[in-house]
Amino acid sequence: MAKNALPSAFENFADARKEGFLTVKNLKDEGKKVVGTFCAYTPVEIFLAAGAVSVGICSFSDETIPEAEKVLPSNLCPLIKSSYGFAITEKCPYMYFADLIVGETTCDGKKKMYELLGDIKNVHVMQLPQTQTDEASIEMWYKEVLALKEKVEKEFDVTITEDDIKAAITIKNEERMLLQEFYNLSKSCPPPITGTEQLKVLYGSQFKFDYESKNKELRDVIDKVKKDYEDGVENVSKSAKRILITGCPLAGVTEKVVTAIEDSGGVVVAFENCIGVKTADRLVDENEEPYKAIADRYLQIGCSVMTPDTNRYDLLSRLVEEFKVDGVVEMTLQACHTYAIETAQIRKLMQDRDVPFISVETDYSTADVAQLKTRLAAFIEMLV
Amino acid sequence: MKEFYIGIDSGSTMCKAVLFDGKNLVDTYIIKTGWNPKISASECLDHLLEKNTISRDNVNITATGYGRETIDFADNIFTEITCHAYGGIYLKPEIQGIIDIGGQDSKVIQIQNQRVADFLMNDKCAAGTGRFLSMACEILDIKLEDIDGFTDIIDPISISSMCTVFAESEIIGLLSMEKDRSKIMGGVLQSIAQRIRAMTGKINYDLEAPILMSGGLSKSKALIEMISKITGLKVETHDNALFAGAIGACICAYNKNN
After folding, report:
1. What is the mean pLDDT of residues B164-178?
2. Closest to B121 (Cβ–Cβ): which among A347, A356, A375?
3. Residues B121, B186 share a domain
4. What is the CATH code for A185-382?
5. What is the reported pTM?
6. Closest-CA residue of chain A to B114
7. B185 and B250: one domain?
8. Measuring CA to CA, which residue among A38, A102, A107, A43 is closest to residue A296?
9. pLDDT digit string, tens, across residues A339-357
10. Which domain holds residue B211?
11. CB 3.0 to 4.6 Å from B118: which of A113, B110, B142, B226, for a disulfide?
């Protein structure tokens, strides 16, 4: 595959996480409040409506794992260990600046880690139901969303008006629509951009805190990519096998999976991960009562912490068609039980649809780069 | 157009090479991979060229196996999964799959319509690999080539540890209880077969169609019998199954050129 330099449009997003450090410091100096979030289930509209800045603090590097293992068991998901490690070592500026950290009762590992994190940081945990369609769960989650609003108002000494929350819903929906438009560009054959490039924008967009300018930058990237494609710039070979990635959160060191695919004659066209389609797929209904609409939208996110995880299966089935996928690669993180168990159902789902499927387990080390390359290259050789 | 193909399967333990004329397997050669896969691969190449008096310019070279990326004189590179499958089909066209137990990994491949349809690999741990067996041979003081005559596969003593390091302690424990070595070895083969079953169970295999066992351990009838028993599948081997990867490398290159 042609190794082109990243178009300048992507550079705005490539270093967003690093550049955001300074932005957040300046925002703090101006008196802004910062909220650290872990999961796709966190309704960030509430922080926006309160005039606060929210930022993802899931960590994707093995740097702080040894420190975390002084407290946490070593046989635990690396994302949880790493995130906790960054908190106790104060090495993540976002975690450091966070006035409030919001987590949910998602997987067992995160849930229990939040208790320990609560000893050193101001943590609020929302009780996330494990099912998505029954009345009791829907009602409970709505109450949790209202409780979060009250918590934020109290912590930051603000009142969130109806106009505030509605404005927040609108601008967040705008971002989602732009992200959808962006990743949907890869439905073209060949896709206009590589998966590595797509991920840079999806991941980087989390670390831009002024929504108006972020949405404008997203618009610019979309227009640039579209124009290049229309001008006949061929960034990806026509023969590249179209891969969809699903599974655990993918960013930072685990981009090794994307690299192995794209170095072996494949191209990642879609990410059904937390950083990807999952978080941007559906909008908050602007015609509903705002908090009810927020609660209903977030609760329906597909993730292996839900039982059954029908929404993930439905989304995957849809994406495989829409993106004309040649094969599905699932990445699970070591010791992530819910995803690892659900692999059996995803394998079956893909077998029933005649879509080639492979699941690879990895961690935050780089020790398995050669093994990943062998598996993923063999998988791509297998695709017709 | 080059007349001959040489396939080099540079594994973690052994380097296997074959000479292929586009139709027939002409010659085979195997040596230890050693610390430098590139050196052993070029030794294989030189041997095959010299012995068959073929000029270097007249061969197309394909590399596979763990060392494949280091073999910079190869014209093509394919992964060992694809190569084992095509080599297996060449040796036994009717197979529905491959079980390959290598030095540091084991893999299970499903073949449909003469192509790879699915595969699973265990490369995270030594359980169920050749390394596990050589560890056991060392403690039990049995040569790898003697396991067939020695092992009691009818009444094995189960080894419950899945981790090679813990299994080692478990075997030492059994020896200290003066348990029968041949039954312990039976337990070792049973443990490998159980790891293989964990993979074959995830693939929709037909119980009747044959599966080829490839790799160095395909020489062991006792292991094949144990795997057949535990997985319930029809596992067979072939005299040249050891060379399946190297043969497949030639076939992949041949298919690419024709």
Report:
1. 92
2. A375
3. yes
4. 3.40.50.11900
5. 0.91
6. A382
7. no
8. A43
9. 999 999 999 999 999 999 9
10. 94-237
11. B110
Q: What single string gives the DSSP state of each residue in A209-264? A: --HHHHHHHHHHHHHHHHHHHHTT---S-TTSEEEEEEES---GGGGHHHHHHHTT
Q: CA nearest B191: which of B144, B127, B246, B234?
A: B127
Q: B-side interface with A, Cβ within 8 Å?
A: 66, 78-82, 105, 115-119, 121, 123-124, 202, 204
Query: What ipTM was assigned to the predicted interfaces of this complex?
Result: 0.88
For domain A23-162, which architecture applies?
3-Layer(aba) Sandwich (3.40)
Minimal CA separation from B204 to chain A, in Å: 10
CB atoms within 10 A of CB B59: 21
With a cut of 50, list the residues of chain A below it in pLDDT: 1-7
Q: Do residues B61 and B108 both lie within one domain?
A: no
> Is residue B178 exposed (0-12), middle (13-18) or buried (19+ Cβ within 10 Å)?
exposed
- Tokens at residue A269, please? 């066209």
Question: By the 8 A CB rule, do A173 and A180 touch?
Answer: no
Q: In Å, how far are A116, A246, A323, B37 from A260, measured between CA atoms?
A: 36, 15, 20, 22
The CB density around residue B75, as the number of other CB atoms within 10 Å, is 15
Q: Are A376 and A360 in contact (CB under 8 A)?
A: yes
| Residues of chain B positioned with their CB less than 8 A from the CB of A382 | 81-82, 115-119
How open is the CA angle B201-B189-B176, to the nearest 5 degrees?
A: 135
What pLDDT, on the 0 to 100 scale, is given for residue B103? 84
Q: In the 3-class helix/strand/coil scheme, how is chain B assigned residue by residue?
A: CCCEEEEEEECCCEEEEEEECCCCEEEEEEEECCCCHHHHHHHHHHHHHHHCCCCHHHEEEEEECCCHHHCCCCCEECCHHHHHHHHHHHHCCCCCEEEEECCCCEEEEEEECCEEEEEEEECCCCCCCHHHHHHHHHHHCCCHHHHHHHCCCCCCCCCCCCCHHHHHHHHHHHHHCCCCHHHHHHHHHHHHHHHHHHHHCCCCCCCCCEEEEECHHHHCHHHHHHHHHHHCCEEECCCCHHHHHHHHHHHHHHHHHC
Amino acid at position A44, single letter: V
Whether the ω angle into residue A308 lies within 30 degrees of 0, i.e. cis, is yes
Answer yes or no: do B81 and A370 touch at CB < 8 A. Answer: no
Number of domains in chain B: 2
